[in-house]
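Interim report to the steering committee. The following record documents the input for tRNA dimethylallyltransferase (282 residues).
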Amino acid sequence: MPVLIAGPTASGKSALALQIAQNSGGVIINADALQVFDGWRVLTARPDDADLARAPHLLYGHVPFDADYSVGHWLRQVGDILANPPARPIITGGTGLYFRALTEGLAEIPRTPPDIRAQAGALLADGGLPALLAELDDTTRARIDVQNPMRVQRAWEVLHATGRSLADWQDATPPPLLPLNDVIPIVINADRDWLNDRINRRFDLMLENGALDEARVMKLRWNPAHLSSKAIGAPELIAHIRGELSLEEARKAACTASHQYAKRQRTWFRARMKGWQPYIPA
């Protein structure tokens, strides 16, 4: 039976997936929206060479850093894997929408035209999240993370590209690839203080393991509009390399952003994964 492992950043999802794969076999499939991109391997905590040698991994770093990639892209690729899995699927990551699409289904929403996406980006830059949220219906606002610019912009784009709200599309969703009854669903329930300490220590390890060198390479092709640029810590390290922040200032800002992201993840999981088995890390 497939295993699903969801949890906030730095909570030990990958370690648990590796443990299961080594103990009972399996292929680890990525369910993190930022680990799909190449370029930011260290900063997004993609599996290193040692981890890759311990178990097979799929859908990590396979998308160009400057490409668009959506939950629809991911679901189609996972569907192709599940049609003929090389081993027991162990799907792990922190992107709740990926798991929701996998276990509840995903509406086939048409692609957003480039001009609509440009309008959304300009509106977000000029008026911030409130400018986009003001045009969304109550039902859609209740279903999305209204603090997440990517999710809010996506809802706005769907409305303006199709004339239908995101909630309307979701209500016409086809059957899921993996209903919860057909999997072992695990959600990591981590204590806030424990998790924030791990986040801080992990970012320090990232700096030790080459995150600054990675940022120097990415600086040459940096574009904050790229989805891959949403990696926690990327804007801060680029700002440091440009001389806009000291390394300590960049570190503190990145850790704070990661704490805030983890808080949003925990809130999302508590609200939408009540049927999942909780796992409390030691």
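The chain has three domains: 3-107+175-190+267-279, 114-170, 192-264. The committee is asked to note this result when reviewing the revised timeline.
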